[in-house]
Design brief:
This protein has about 220 residues and is of the alpha/beta class. The protein is about 25% helix and about 35% strand. Strands 1, 4, 8, 9 and 13 form a five-stranded mixed sheet that branches. Strand 5 (about 50-55) and strand 6 (about 55-60) form a beta hairpin. It is globular, with a radius of gyration of 18 Å. The N and C termini lie close together (about 10 Å). About 30% of the residues are buried. Residues about 1-10 and about 215-223 have low confidence and may be disordered.
Length: about 220
C-alpha cells in the first residue's frame, strides 16, 4: 500500500496508524498497556472522536466530546457554535467495502472496514464557515425553540476525494469504491419545553451537508 498525505488546509485525511505514529501539531500520543491516549490542545482543535480499537489497542482521545454532542442550554450552544466556526474539527471515519446498491446507511453498517482515517476540517476556512453558519441558522429558525438534533454530513467531499485518491482492489481483482461509515457528526440541543412533541416524534431532526475542496493525493488498498 502506498500513501501520500493531502495538503489542502480545508480538509485533511490521514490514516489512523499514521496519525498515531506522527501526530500533528497540538497533539501527542501517550502509550498505555491497554492501548494509547491521545492528548490535544482544546484551544485550537475540536475533537469529536469516540473511543475505538486500533492496531495499538483501545484508543482514547482525551479531550474529545464524542461524535454526538449534547447541549442543554444557550450558553453551551453558543460555545459549541463558536468552536465549530473557529477551530479545526477532528473526526474518525471508516472506508468500507460495501454494496452501493443498498441504502447508504445500510451499506455502511454491513460493510467490511478497509481502513480508518482521522478526517479534519478547518471550521475557520471562509467557505466551510459560511456553510456551517448557514446550516446552523436554518436549523434554529425551523425548530421554533424546541429540542432538536442536526447532522452535519461530510459524505459528499469524502466520496469525491476517495473516487480520485483511493484505489481498492478486491481479492477478485475488481476495483470498488469505498462506502463511508460515520461521515457525519451530530449536535443535540435539549430545551426546557414541558411538552416537546416535535422532538419526541422525531420531527425536529435536521441535516445539512458541507462541501469541501481538497488537493490531490493517492492511496492504493489491496484487500
Amino acid at each position: 500500500m502506498t500513501t501520500s498525505k493531502p495538503s489542502h488546509s480545508g480538509m485533511r485525511v490521514t490514516e489512523v496508524e499514521e496519525f498515531l505514529r506522527n501526530p500533528p501539531d497540538g497533539f501527542s500520543v501517550e502509550v498505555l498497556c491497554s492501548g494509547c491516549r491521545v492528548h490535544s490542545d482544546p484551544e485550537n482543535s475540536l475533537v469529536l472522536v469516540d473511543d475505538f480499537d486500533s492496531c495499538r489497542g483501545k484508543t482514547v482521545f482525551q479531550k474529545s466530546l464524542g461524535r454526538k454532542v449534547k447541549m442543554q442550554n444557550l450558553w453551551e450552544y453558543t460555545s459549541m457554535r463558536k468552536s465549530l466556526l473557529s477551530k479545526r474539527i477532528y473526526l474518525l471515519m471508516s472506508a468500507c467495502e460495501g454494496n452501493r446498491s443498498l441504502s447508504d446507511k445500510k451499506a455502511a453498517n454491513e460493510a467490511r472496514v478497509l481502513k480508518q482515517f482521522v478526517v479534519s476540517i478547518d471550521g475557520n476556512d471562509p467557505i466551510i464557515k459560511w456553510q456551517m453558519e448557514r446550516g446552523l441558522d436554518r436549523t434554529i429558525s425551523s425548530v421554533w425553540g424546541e429540542s432538536y438534533s442536526v447532522d452535519i454530513d461530510l459524505n459528499e467531499p469524502l466520496e469525491r476525494w476517495a473516487a480520485k485518491n483511493i484505489h481498492i482492489i478486491t481479492d477478485k481483482r475488481m476495483k470498488v469504491q469505498p462506502v463511508w461509515r460515520d461521515a457525519s457528526f451530530t449536535l443535540k440541543y435539549y430545551s426546557d419545553a414541558l411538552f416537546d412533541f416535535p422532538h419526541w416524534f422525531g420531527f425536529s431532526r435536521r441535516k445539512f451537508n458541507v462541501s469541501i475542496s481538497y488537493s490531490s493525493s493517492f492511496m492504493s488498498i489491496v484487500t
